[in-house]
C-alpha cells in the first residue's frame, strides 16, 4: 500500500489550500444566489414581484395611496434619486421600473387630461409591461370613483378601490409545480459541475503529475510492487479523493437549503452527481496524461470553464443558442445538466418520464469510459517511450 | 530607454508560452465562452406577447377577448381543453383560460408571464365590481350616460427612455474582461522586477553588472510589457466587437485610451508588487493572478451585480480598484452621453498608475548588492 499511502501524504500537504479556496468560493457564490433568488411558494400562485422604485414628488393623498399600493404589490427598492444613480440602478437591474409621480398629480387627476406618471424601465421589457398594467389598474378604478363621486375623499376612494381590487380571478395548476427547494437544488447541482471539474483536475491532475514525473516513475517501476497493484493503488487513491469531495458537496445543500434527502428527486440529483464525479475523475485522468506542470493550470481552466459554460451550468440551458444545444451533444456536462433539469421538472414519475434520465446517465458513463480509455492509451504509449 | 532591451523583452514575452496564454489567449477564450453562454440572455428580458389559449366551446365574459386583443399583451389561441392541456404540458403556452361557472386561469407554475395574464383577468373582474359598486352607490349615473363616457383602459403612464443607447447589461461582462486583460500585464510587470533585482534571479545579477543604467533597463522592460499587453487588448477588442459582434458603441478611440492607461496601471501594479515583496517567482505569479482576479470579481467579471453592490455600499473600494475603474470607464462610455464619468475614471486610473510607478522607483533605486 506504499503508493496509496504516499498519495495520502501528498494530498493534505499540497492540496488542502486549493480545496479550501474552491469550497469557500463555491459556498459564497451559492449563498449569494440563494439570497438573491426570487422566492416562490410551493402550491399557491404567487404574483411575480417586479422590483419597483417610486419617486413621489406629489405627496398628495392620492399619490401616497398609489405609492403604498405599488409597494405592496411589487418589491420596493430604495434608490438614490439623482439622475446618475437612477440610470445606474436601472442598468444593473437593481430596480426594474422607476415610477416618478409628478407634482400636482392629484390636482390634475380629475381633469380630462391628467398629468402622466413618468416611468423609466429597460425598454420593452416584460417587467415594465407588467408594472404598467398594475399601475393603470389601480388608477382606472380610482378614476371611476372620482368621476362618479366627485365629493368622495381620497382615503375613501382608496379604500373602495382596494376592496374592489381584492376580487381576483381563479388560478389553478395543471400539475403540481416543482417546489422551491427542488428548483434551488437544481441550480445548485448544475453549478456543481463547474466546481467538480475544476477541483478534480487541479487536485487529481496535479497528484498524477507528481507520480508521472519521469524520475519518480523510473524509481517506482523498479520497486517490488507489480505494475498492476501500483496502478490499482493510484486508482483507489484518486477514487477516494473524488468520493470525499463528492460527499462534502452533496452534503452542503442540505445545510444551505435545510432540505431533507428523502425526496425521490433529491435522491436522483445525488445519484446524477455521483455519475458526474466519476466522469470528472476520468476527465482529470485524461488531462493529467498529457499535461505538464506548466500547462495544467491553463488546461484545467479551459476544460472547467469551457465544458460548464457551454453546458449551461451558469446560464439556464433553455437560453443557450441553438448551435450550442447541438454542440452540447458532444459535451458530457451538457448531458449532466440536462438530466438535472429533467429531474427538476419532473411532476409525475413513471417509465416514460424516467427514460430520458437513465439515458442521460448512460451517455455520461459512456463519455467517462471514452476519456478513461484515451487516457490509458496515452499512458501506455508513454510507458513504452520511457 | 534602450531599444535593444525593449526589443528583447518583447521577444521573450512572445516566446513565453505561459505568458502568451494568460495575457493573450485566455481573454479570447473567456470572451468566446461569454458569447456562447450569455448570447441569448437578454432575449429573456425583452417583452414577448404572452401565449394564452382560450377554451373555444365555453362562453367567455362579454368584452374580455376584445380587451385582451386591444391590450397588445397576448397571443390568443382558440382550442379545446384537452388540446390546451397538451400545449401547456409542452410549455407552448403560458396558460389557458376556461370559464366553467367562473373565470379560471390554468397554468403550470408561477412566473411573470403568468402574472401578466392573472393581473389582466383580475383587472377584468375588478372593473366589473367597481362599475357595479359605482352604479349601486349612485343609480342616477346610469341615466346620465355615465357608462358610455368612461374609459376603462386609460393609460396614466408615460415612458421615459433612460438613454438613447441600448441597455444591454451583458456588455459589462466584456468590459470586466477587458479590465482583466489590461491588468494581466501585472504578470509582465512583476516579472520585470524579478529580473532587475539582483538578489532575486541570476538573470538580474547579470543585468545589474551590465553598463546600462538600471532605471533605463527597467523602463524599457516596462514599456515592452505595456506595448505587448496593449496589443493583446486591441486583439481582444477586435475579436469581441468584430467576430463576436458585441456592440461597444462607436467611441473606439476613448476605449483605446482607457485600455492603454489600464495596461500602464496594471504593469505598474505588478512591478510594485514584485518590488515590495520577496517571494519566489511562482508564488508571486500566483498572488498577482489571484489579486487581479479578486479585483475583476469586484468589478463584475463573474457576477455582474457585485459591481453595483460595491459601488453603492463601498464606493471607496470602487475608486481604488483599477479593474473597476476600467470597467466603469468603459461602462460610462457605453451608457452615458457625456464624458464626465469616463474622464473621472480615467484620471483616477492614471493617478493610481503613477502612484504605483513612484513606489516602485523608490523601492528599486539605489539598491546595491555588496554580495548576493
SSE blueprint:
The complex is a heterodimer of chains A (386) and B (372).
Chain A: H1 2-36, E1 51-56, H2 61-73, E2 75-76, H3 83-91, E3 97-101, H4 105-109, E4 117-121, H5 126-148, H6 154-165, E5 170-173, H7 180-212, H8 214-221, H9 227-256, H10 264-290, H11 296-311, H12 322-327, H13 332-345, H14 351-385
Parallel strand pairs in A: 1-2, 1-3
Antiparallel strand pairs in A: 3-4
Chain B: H1 3-15, H2 17-38, E1 50-55, H3 64-71, E2 74-79, H4 81-89, E3 95-100, E4 102-107, H5 112-137, H6 140-143, H7 146-149, E5 157-160, H8 171-183, H9 185-194, H10 202-209, H11 214-243, H12 252-276, H13 281-298, H14 304-313, H15 315-320, H16 322-335, H17 340-364
Parallel strand pairs in B: 1-2, 1-3
Antiparallel strand pairs in B: 3-4
Helix pairs in contact in B: 1-11, 2-8, 2-11, 8-11, 8-12, 8-13, 8-16, 9-11, 9-12, 9-13, 11-12, 12-16, 12-17, 16-17
What does this structure look like?
Chain B: The chain crosses the membrane at residues 20-38, 171-196, 217-240, 252-275, 287-310, 342-364. The complex is a heterodimer of chains A (386) and B (372). With 386 residues, chain A is mainly alpha-helical. Chain A folds into two domains: 2-34 and 175-385, no CATH class; 48-166, 3-Layer(aba) Sandwich (abc type-2 transporter like fold), CATH 3.40.1710. Chain A has helices at 2-36, 61-73, 83-91, 105-109, 126-148, 154-165, 180-212, 214-221, 227-256, 264-290, 296-311, 322-327, 332-345, 351-385; strands at 51-56, 75-76, 97-101, 117-121, 170-173. A four-stranded mixed beta sheet of chain A has the order 2-1-3-4, covered by helices on one side. The longest helix of chain B has 30 residues, at 214-243. Chain B has helices at 3-15, 17-38, 64-71, 81-89, 112-137, 140-143, 146-149, 171-183, 185-194, 202-209, 214-243, 252-276, 281-298, 304-313, 315-320, 322-335, 340-364; strands at 50-55, 74-79, 95-100, 102-107, 157-160. In chain B, α9 (185-194) runs antiparallel to α11 (214-243), α12 (252-276) packs antiparallel against α16 (322-335) and α12 (252-276) packs parallel to α17 (340-364). Chain B is α/β, with parallel strands linked by helices. The two termini of chain B are 27 Å apart. At the A-B interface, α1, α3, β4, α5 and α6 of A face α2, α4, β4, α5 and β5 of B. β4 of chain A pairs parallel with β5 (157-160) of chain B, so a sheet runs across the interface.
